């Protein structure tokens, strides 16, 4: 996760748990405004670190979230095993 430098004071007391809930409790609810979902194969080091075969694809998600005024606050990239992933799109 990368956060806007202007919001760093909010993160100083973060101790763990849901970061989105923590920020909302501090008065900064975030709205996901962009998600790019993809797949790729891990390189040798990534596969070894996660104890998975190199031929097993990963699911990747790049997400941008904004505050109430529309200012970008968070850019997050997540990677998970594609064979253990389920995605639901709801209106």
TrEMBL record:
Transmembrane segments: none annotated. Pfam families: UTRA. It comes from the Bacteria. Residues 11-86 form the UbiC transcription regulator-associated domain. GO terms for biological process: regulation of DNA-templated transcription. One of its GO terms (molecular function) is DNA binding. This is UTRA domain-containing protein.
